[in-house]
Fold this protein.
Amino acid sequence: MHADPLAYLGSELQTLKDQKLYRRLRILDDEQRARTTVDHKSVVNLSSNNYLGLTTHPRLREQALKAIDEYGVGTGSVRTIAGTMDIHMELEQKLADFKKVEKVVVFPSGFAANAGTVSAILTKDDVVISDELNHASIIDGCRLSRATIKVFPHKDVDAARKIVKGLPATQRKLLITDGVFSMDGDLGPLPALCGLAEETGCIMMVDDAHASGVFGRNGRGTIDHFDMHGRVDIQVGTLSKAVGALGGYVAGNTNLIEFLYHRARPFLFSTSHPPAVVLACMAAIDVLLEEPQIIEQLWQNTRFFKEGLQRLGFNTGLSESPITPVIAGDGAKAMLLSDKLFERGVFAQGIAFPTVARDKARVRTIVTATHSREDLQYALDAFAAVGREIGLI
């Protein structure tokens, strides 16, 4: 036997274990619901992006089954060869109408939408001006584009302005922010950034994954929430979170979308969405349009839970959304908080470096529209007991 050339990975894993940061995957034994079964234990689920409970909505189930009957389980090709069905075009048109833009293209995931778009529209001669807490998929897209990356401190528009003003006026620039930041739950300063982009000729891009189905009228996102229609050149949304299925999409003008058809590598080299996913996504948009009360229920639950955590004395950071971090500081302490909560029947995943800063490790909670008041109070009681036990409150 030759020596294992991957042995060094075992040492890396041992380091994680020594730092108490090693995690094994938790297994969901049930449907993705507000109260569900994880690792054979009944838990209040505060770790899912299923904001509106649409993963199990009867209208989505019905359409997914209909799609399998009508079209089979897969498409067998990429979009640009034989994998574009009429339903793919119908979904994109429905999303374009929903987002009030000329055109939309759907990608296999939100990650692919971000990375594929940034890397397609920029070259090594261009510059990206990016918030330091932007999503990993944006960072990877920037790296793949080989453009120069300039990072500004979180939400610091003056710092972003200084960077832009220091660049040659003729250089192509992309100014990019999350609409809702996925770990802190705060909103990007869209009005000020859009103003900066207009003043300096930057392309303005917003990753609205965690705002899709959550902010704006009927869940149209932060562009609608801040009334920035027509002022954001590239909007990225997701079909994997509040929409309850799978995928991401890019919304913008016709030139942008048709260029992505030709140059976005994840679009060109990934098999298209299975029919069941496409019809489920269309049903989800109908639900957003026809049952907006579920979004209001999400916000009522969010306010109740956030106020409860704050009353107990937890540090919930800057959150303005259903994503509420409970910041423990040290990575090992965040993992301990998560594990102790799980013992008490509350599933809230611990998150540490490199996903967040070393001193900002946390348990990240997300409430959904389908949590009952009893579920949320149960979770708050568990947080109170564990928080006292480990000296967080």
The two ends are 54 Å apart (CA to CA). The first strand starts at residue 35 and ends at 38.
